[in-house]
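Continuing the batch. This is chain 6 of the set; chains 1 through 5 are on the previous pages. Same settings as before, nothing changed between runs. Recording input and output for traceability.
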Amino acid sequence: MKILITGGAGFIGAALGQRLLDRGDTVHAVDTLNDYYEVSLKQARLSRLQDREGFSFDRLDIADRAAVAELFEKHQFDAVMNLAAQAGVRYSLENPAAYVDANLVGFGNILEGCRHSKVGHLVYASSSSVYGSNTKLPYSENDAVDHQVSLYAASKKANELMAHTYAHLYDLPCTGLRFFTVYGPWGRPDMAFFTFTQAMRPGEKIPAFNHGKMLRDFTYIDDIVAGVIRVIDSPARPDPDYSHDAPMPSSSDAPYRVYNIGNGRPVELLKYIEVLEDALGIKADKDMLPMQAGDVKATTADTSALERDMGYRPETTVEEGLARFAQWYRDYYK
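Output for chain 6:
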């Protein structure tokens, strides 16, 4: 297949590109290479892909309507994996315009490109953040998700609504993946496992919000990529059991699906820090802090639907995953 990955120099995008090339797919990636975090890391991820047969890349902003239209006119993609987005809950409090541009305008441009070029399957990144202030755990795709607590989360919920509209109006198969706290080698420096490591090495304090009682469904990158590929290979279809009298949020009579993609085994933040301490051989100096605006106390994924439909079974423990991250970090940063 010929597959477009937007956000192709990002953490998940670059790892997905490697795996798709390994199995013989043709991959075209686009990315803005913006400076939300260190550009050199994005370039390093990209450099591991650029010399591989079947790979091509364009520096492109998906919020640029004309550029996205030209991209889809130039290429005929069998599938699209939309990972390009402005990420981060906390940053959305500081720069909301970035989320409107990338996550709303940009996603609309991708939908239009897929519609006009008749792409066989659009898979896109949603987020566990859409569950917002929900307290029922584990989170299920059929829970109501109408009370987001950050603009980032709201933009991801909007993506699901936009995708359903295109699935309904234009018969475009769309599958949304609600990612749960992805970590591992080549990860994002704005995420806790990375920022903790950067602070712990020189002996600086690390913030433990909610006094370390946060609960997160940490999911290792290889498990995420394996699940994403299974989804790309299985275009969404109308749900034959869908009822308009009792509609289920995760499916439709249009070719539309939403899945949780996580580990299903949540870990408390203090425990996660302990495992990271062991992996790095460094004791953390923790700054116990209250909850911060826009955050949620716990995330836990019910992944039974993805397991039922795609055979998805994450296997990597946090002990294994953080040990691999720690070794990569030592190697990469010398």
